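User: Structure tokens for this complex, please. No commentary.
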Amino acid sequence: QKEVEQNSGPLSVPEGAIASLNCTYSDRGSQSFFWYRQYSGKSPELIMSIYSNGDKEDGRFTAQLNKASQYVSLLIRDSQPSDSATYLCAVRFYGNNRLAFGKGNQVVVIP
Amino acid sequence: NAGVTQTPKFRILKIGQSMTLQCTQDMNHNYMYWYRQDPGMGLKLIYYSVGAGITDKGEVPNGYNVSRSTTEDFPLRLELAAPSQTSVYFCASWQGTGYEKLFFGSGTQLSVL
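Assistant:
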């Protein structure tokens, strides 16, 4: 069973700090990686996608991909209370039309 | 553009009842998905479709059925509802080519009692 794992518990960070989230995946051949944000009671929304090793920055968000180690991470710089949400890692496995999600990490930004 | 529309938003079923969750999109997307999300958990794929007439099972298909007769519609059928099917159900779609972004519906909260 191909898996996407997010094992960290809820993350509390003070406003203005950096929040760091990690995700590992089981299929070495995976090509497409995503971070979705989900506010409580709402549907997920895409915030970052990454396809190549290295860093990809978009505003206060940076996605990092390391295919050799099979992990993808998300950094949220200058965290704001509006960043309080659950962040879902998603992976499209090689040769597959499915998009598999991890269980998510809750982030709470404390003013 | 309405995007992805799911109905109903809430539903309570008795054990053994059946129902259909409706999903329609107006973006001419080829790929459509049904996910379920249990409390504190991520999304589990139930079924997906890559085009009209083509469907395939996801991770947790037991107890569900789908059909895709048109590009726009992808209904999810629950037969003989069980308490284990209590969950929030999300329908999602994307074009299938180019920039990969899932568009989600607003979800259906289903309780089976």
